[in-house]
Fold this protein.
Amino acid sequence: MTAQEIRKAYLDFFEKKGHAVVPRAQLVPKDDPTTLFTGSGMQPLLPYLLGEKHPKGTRLVNSQTCLRAQDIDEIGDNRHTTFFEMLGNWSLGDYFKKQQIRWFFEFLVGEVGLDPNRIYVSCFIGNEKAGIPKDTESAEIWQDLFSEQGIDNKIVEIGSASNGNKVGMQGGRIFYYDDGENWWSRGGGIDNTPIGDPCGPDSEVFYDFGEELHDETKWGKAHPANDSGRFMEIGNQVFMQYKRTEKGFEELPNQNVDFGGGLERISAVAINSSDIFKISIIWPIIEKLQQLSGKEYQENTEAMRIIADHLRAAMFLAVDGVVPSNKEQGYVMRRLMRRAILKAFNLGIEQNFVQEIVSVIANMYKNDFPEVLEKEEEIIVILVKEEKAFKQTLRKGLREFEKLAKGREYPMSYPATIGGGTLNGTIVFKLYDTYGFPAELSIEQAKKDGVSLDDNWRKQFDAKMKEQRERSRTATKGIFKGGLGGQTLQHKKYHTATHLMYQALRDVLGDHVVQRGSNITEERLRFDFSHPDKMTEEQKQQVEKIVNEQIAKDLKITWAEYPTSEATGKLGVLGQFGDRYGATVKVYKMISDDSDKPFSFEICGGPHVDHTLQLAEGSKKFKIIKEQSSSAGIRRIKAVLK
């Protein structure tokens, strides 16, 4: 089966099991200050796994596009990608272990056609100290399934993965691991599970490519959680059956299932290839690169894998509204683009190649993701523009390098001098950071021009790059659409007050007022909006008066999902300028019991308080403490509840 066929078969399979197919969330998460990108299928559904009711019911399924920038330095091996699709199905207090395990096994064997003899699984060994028992239920379900296939179903207790490297397979089919492998929480292992969070054991599924892919002298003895490459994890079934409290772990009244399986990995095992780059949604890119470069994949594997992965990621970032820049998501996109362009340059592809590669990628996805077809021309313009700009950067970097080669000194404000034509890691990073000149080219050019390399250049450069990687991985608080810096009650109060103030500003200043950003902490709200002039004291007082009146009316706050075209068209709900939405949107309404017209009607991901009088607890009032210019034509308000 092709990857496209597997994606469709998966959605169809679970739809027949009563699941509603939900659209993918965008790669840039809304109202989530903890991460730059949507990195898992579960992430957009976390509010519902935490107890919020989903409008489409208790059984959901989708294929979620994901991006993990922290994996960028691992790209080049046979299984890692920054961009991937996660097949996911969820039970929100509906079915549990018995149905989930059996259905996934049925899908792999009956639909995809995998050989069950190559499937191995893991379960949670339990934690006596935390009062969490061994997950014997999952293990017994797996035993039944393997027995039905006539396969030996021996259970082996491993414990830690490092212990597995010592004891090996022991003839096992089902393996018990500790919380380092088979426990899910947002914090990681059992001891890092946040107070108040749902959590639970998980059961992972592995495919065995054969003993020939395992080097025992390098990796220790073989077992499913070993990193040798013999086994590939293709799915993880999380059973959220506990909640951590101050006193320990308690059973949840509603037990949830959160399943995630990598489409690329399942597609690879479907063709019995340990190289995921040979699947139908990546290999055509490799074929095009071979054609453009005149070189073979086998001799240029790492470079071609990096180009294929990075341009897939960049294309979908462009689809979801990201453009290359020096900040946040745009910075990661630019880094992906430049790495891909540099690798193509090293392959001898010096002509503009981005358009041809992106056309190949778009062609593979546009039938299943209509937004790709809709934005294909726009995407190509954005990415080709970055390609041209980077090639100019390369030329400028070469000029700067020539200064170095001739022994000229850099400005003393930067702690590095050339000193006799010696290249150190600090200057390599300077060329990279200031001029975008890649380290590989600096080293290559140094050898070409006879410039000596400092013995510690790599250590110095890596230290600087580590700082850059942290900027790629971690989002700054409050930079996202909803601007939330947390999920506490106080955050919710200020988020709710922001909606009230937004409408009040439009009432006082006019309908030209459009939100341009927000930042919310536990101490105050900050709101940017379009308006040409400084607000007068009278206007600020009017806004305060309107907001406090609406708080006193104790408006009820509810939400519903609408088709985006209906919400932004006929219903006329407010959104944020420049925001991009999927097929449906979540709309919050704030309305009094004696009115048929809401005061606030706005697209938002939440969360909010349940009714506005909660903002006045402790006899607090809404107060604007500062109003100033943010940029040309944009004003900024800071306000508090005090």
Q: What stands out?
A: The chain is about 40% helix and 20% strand.
